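retry 2 of 3: previous attempt timed out while embedding pyridoxal-5'-phosphate. Reduced batch size to 1 and resubmitted. Inputs unchanged:
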Amino acid sequence: MNFSTSEALHQEALKHIVGGVNSPSRAYKAVGGGAPVYMEKGEGAYFWDVDGNKYIDYLGAYGPIITGHAHPHIAKAITHAATNGVLYGTPTKLENQFAKMLKQAIPSLEKVRFVNSGTEAVMTTVRVARAYTNRTKIIKFAGCYHGHFDSVLVEAGSGPATLGTPDSAGIPESVAQDVITVPFNNIEALKHALDIWEGQIAAVLVEPIVGNFGIVEPKEGFLQAVNDLTHNAGALVIYDEVITAFRFTYGSSQQIYGIEPDMTAMGKIIGGGLPIGAYGGKKQIMEQVAPLGPAYQAGTMAGNPASMAAGIACLEVLQEDGLYEKLDQLGEKLETGILEKADKYNISISVNRLCGALTVYFGDGEITNYEQAEASDGESFATFFRLMLRQGINLAPSKYEAWFLTIAHTEKDIEETIAAVEKTFQHMQT
Ligand code: PLP
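retry 2 succeeded.
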């Protein structure tokens, strides 16, 4: 495969754009460096890069793309919005329509608000929880990513008794001191943290199904315990469903487990590929938000007609019967194929999968928390990534990311992917 145009564009980008990328996860730093591939066109399950190479795409733009690229129904909605005016600065009918659709799909959303990104959505839920409880500290889980605002770029010191330390330069210690991080799937650690910081915790923030150290499901009873312990402590439960909303079912992980949080943050899929975020929850909590209440949140671009139209169109597509079952079947075929080839060539991997999203971890043992994901073999993943790319399979350039299937992927795409996996494992074995 020839990547010369991508390489030239990357050299040019390095002169103008910091690190050559507008989001660090797009760089190939974690997979040995070099120029990322510059894509030029996406259609269905496929990408074409600037050198004319074709790929089967499993990046799915880090989660938003579930209908496949350039889905005609969504494209039509965006085109209509473009010719009708993309930004008004006034309320529009589309906002009501979309808010009602979200509420119908996710019953815990008694009231919602649209913002522009997942980061904004989570950030505001934390602010609202602090306003509602009149407390400042939050608990989050190690390895979960909640966007790039100060409070959530914080990792644990050394366990539940320790206040957080900033994960990024530029975050004041004083902000990190309000964040406690505990291991995912560890009820005892959460209980311990809530005991230590009794009366000070505003909210427990969780990805109910983790998407950010690979796909990691909650152990049985974990989410119920999060709700029970958090509520007993007088704090609110916030679900970060930025990845999970509409990824595994029409609705959210709340429907999958039958457990409702107090507030939910969303993004990605609900924008149909355009920038979006949304948050919502119980009426009396949401009424903390301006103009009704004292917690301020605003946005020039919030609820813009283009994102609303794309989001509505995306959800309309996702209402089709049998669609998530199809994603599950394709996901199962892919998982089985990868595991079979790993077995054949004696490559140690484990696969975590839910419906049409999966992660391949190199190394032994199951992955149920961040520590285990961190210990998985990044060098083998980097080799795997590069060999797959050279066979036209586009994955996220990080061992922590998921492969996202779309409704545009076919059985044939999966078979081709498994054939590429076989060649890759054969190569890695030698
Ligand atoms: N929350 C989760 C679970 C995410 O995966 C992400 C982004 O990957 C975010 C929040 C932040 O969303 P955005 O990148 O739209 O700001």
